[in-house]
Structures are given as C-alpha cells and as structure tokens.
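User: Predict the complex.
Assistant: Input components as received:
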Amino acid sequence: MPQQTQPHGDAPTRLAVSTVIFALRPDHSGRPVLWTPLVRRTREPQLGLWALPGGWLPPNEELEAAAARTLRLTTGLAPKYLEQLYTFGEVDRSPGVRVVSVVYWALVQSDEAARAVAGPNVRWVPADTLPGLAFDHNRIVEYALWRLRTKVEYAWIAHAFLGDAFTLAELREVVEAVLQRPLDPANFRRTMLASGRLHETGERLAGARHRPPKLYRYDSSALAAVVPEPTAHTEPMRERPAS
Amino acid sequence: MPQQTQPHGDAPTRLAVSTVIFALRPDHSGRPVLWTPLVRRTREPQLGLWALPGGWLPPNEELEAAAARTLRLTTGLAPKYLEQLYTFGEVDRSPGVRVVSVVYWALVQSDEAARAVAGPNVRWVPADTLPGLAFDHNRIVEYALWRLRTKVEYAWIAHAFLGDAFTLAELREVVEAVLQRPLDPANFRRTMLASGRLHETGERLAGARHRPPKLYRYDSSALAAVVPEPTAHTEPMRERPAS
DNA sequence: TCAAAAGTGTTGTCACTACACCCATGG
DNA sequence: CCATGGGTGTAGTGACAACACTTTTGA
C-alpha cells in the first residue's frame, strides 16, 4: 500500500454531487454581474458556513439529474445549460470522511433568476467576491468562473442567460458582463452573424428612442458542435466528420 | 423521488478510477501511431473482456495517485503527463452495482513504452481500432482521443511522448502521428519557436547524412499556462494575470 | 431636429498557409 | 558532388480590432 497515513481507516468513501450555478443580476450600480446561490450548512462539519448546493448521490439517479435536482431545490429553476466541471477528491478536503464530489456548473436565465426563491438558508452572492466558503468550494467556484469565461469566448453559451429571442445588444451585454470588458458592437455583431448560429426571427424590438433592433433566436441545429462533451444539456453530443 | 425504477436498491454506489494510457509505437509499416494498454477482466461482470486499467479507489489515496499507480501496475511506467478526463456515472453502465468512474488520461514516453511489461492479461492495442471493450470503455477511449487531439493543437503536450531533448523534426513527427496528418516543417518550426516554450540545448544531433539538427528542451517555466486545470501532473496550476 | 443606438464600410495587423529557396552534412 | 533533410524568406489569405460613417427611431 502506497499511503503512509490512514486518516479515514476503512470508512467507505462517499460520493457527492455539487453544482456551481451562475445567473446575471444587476449589481448596485445597475450593471449585470454574475451571481451564484449558496446554501448554509445545517450540520457538521463546517456547520453554518456557506457552501455550494449539492448532496449525496442517490444510487439510482444520474449524475446530471442530481445536479439539476439540486439546482431546482435551491433556486426553483431549471438550468438552461448544465455541464460537468471536474471531480474533486483530495483525501483531506472534508474532515472526517473521504468525500469525492462530482461538480457540475450551470447557467440559468437571468429574468427567471430574478424570481428565484431564497430563504434563510439560501443566499445569492456576487460570484467574483465570495465570502469564505466551506471545504474547497472557493477554489471550485473560481475554476467554474474560469471555465465559463473561456467558453464564452469561443462558444455560444451566452444565450443561455437570455430568453428565447434577444437582440444582439442584449447578447453583447451578457458577454461583456461575463468577460468584464467592453466589446466593439460592430465587430461583435459580425462575429456572431458569421458563426451561423443565430437565426433572425423577423421581428424587431420597438419602444426605445432609437432604431428598433432585430430579434434573433439561437439556432442549435446549425453547424457541428465544437466540443463533443460526453454529456451536455443544451448541446447534445455529436459526431465529428470522419477524417 | 424522481426515479421510477430502483435497479440497484440500496446497495452503495462504488467509486472507481480508470486511466486511458497513450504511447506512440511504430505500426506494421514502421510509422508511429497511438497505442493504449488494456487489461483482461478476471472476474464478473464482463469476465474475459478487455477493459481500461483501473480499480476501486482506496479510501486514503488521491485520485491522481490512484491513476498513476494503475498505470505503473499495468505498464511498469511512470506518466509524463496525467490529467483528469471526465467522470462517467450512468446508472446502468455496469450491470449489478452502480459504479461511478473517475477517468484520467496519461501520456508515456515512447521509448520507455517499448520496454513496457505485458502479459497474458495486459495487451497493447492501436487506439484507433479498438476491439469491443467492457462497459462503456470504447466511448471513454474515443473521448480521450478527442481530448488528446484537440489539446495537441494548441498546447505542447506532444513533448511528453519524447525524451528530455529532441529535434523539431521528432516533435513534428509526434504531432503528425497524433493528428494523423502531415504538417509543413517550416511552419511547424516557426510556430513552435514562437511559442517560447522550447529551449535550445546548444547541441546538435549528428550522424545522419544531412545537416545536423539542433536539440531542444521543453521549457515548462516559460509563459503562463493556457489551461489552469485544478490538477495537472506536468503543468502546475498557475494564476492568470488580473484584468 | 437631435440624441442614441442600430447597423455598414474600410483599413491595418497578425497568425497561419503554401511554397520557393539556400545550407550543411554523410556517403 | 549529390541526395537528404535542416533551416530561412516571402507572398497570400482570412480572422479580428479599431473606428469612421450612415440609418432609423422616440421624444
């Protein structure tokens, strides 16, 4: 046996599923920023600390389903995007028992998130300025944030924060909020349209005191998937063309 | 409870670690192609079928350590690159018990791989033409192959197949073997040198009947890491510059 | 008629491709 | 001296950034 110490003896390793949930909400100045819901731990260890939503994996539930259920229980919402992030399993990440956590990350629609349930044991916080969380959860959220930001640059996840139809300005606002930097409206428009994943609805959004912008819909059937994840909620696995 | 059926009742979910191991070996025509070691299952279920190296996670062993140990046991080698791939946990992926597998993928040095141990229960096969494997292992290897090929295009993993010092032609041969397509030597050279991750050793490789090529070393300290994986064997996690 | 955002045109830069060409070595 | 790869030069292309400019609306 390679290991010197036996901190957990022969106690069985437990398997948990946690989810990092992101939504866009206006901050105090009114600009949208990333928020994430946390739950207060109601038992030892780390009682009272804030932690990622999650729980033990039921023997007959799929990993992704467990993540979606957790999300629904804490926020009352359904994910528009859900993907496995990473599995964290350091021997000492939880005192007492060995816990291996399969972590998912999810995006929920912003306007729905505004109506999300909360309570004394559920609290939404800005994802970039987290308090000290239980276990290694700070590190987990940081990694999820990195993944989201990387993915938003080459993929089309941004639409998951929006409703069915949206303007290019709305989409750009979302990407800007995630990346925390302004984008050139003209270039953004062209890049998006060139991707072939946006579909004109034919309608426009009137009411503002300027030229009414066109409304677009995300076209999931267009082109091939960039990343054939083994499992992905909004982008089902697809075959790449044979070489 | 969301699930209708209870195929596993209250039997505890078991946690396994498996590893997809890649090495380059010459095929029958002498050109290097990707090979991977498999182990024969010596017990039910799926007795006799070939499967990925792996086993149950010991309570006091790190996930990555378990993957490395598995690799050593089946091949006698140490990985030059080791990274978590994905966690597979479908309820029905193994008959009988619920098994969740944390899968790693690894690269081993080609000349070492040539001396790898084998036996009646360990067999190396070309990674692109696998036989029918146990469980969902075919799908897992396919996903690992995709990851390797994607990563080789923007990262510098290729050097993990080689020894300490290597020529640009050797490195290019590796990348060509992984991607299964020829690359322009001139452009490959420039791209690699421009990356700043190669370091001249000052020596040359003489003996061939042509101009002796320079030898390079991989410089892990150069520049920032592209992907801050939570855990990575050859590329430790690094912070990105603050924006 | 004017502010404000939608939307278009144009130019420069940079990375990458294709391919012509010169260089150094062993036989 | 010549075949063989090592190594350099250079023109073309396409993606993207920067930014000037025109268009359409509501007040």
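The first helix of chain A runs from residue 63 to 75.
Let me know if you want any component modeled separately.
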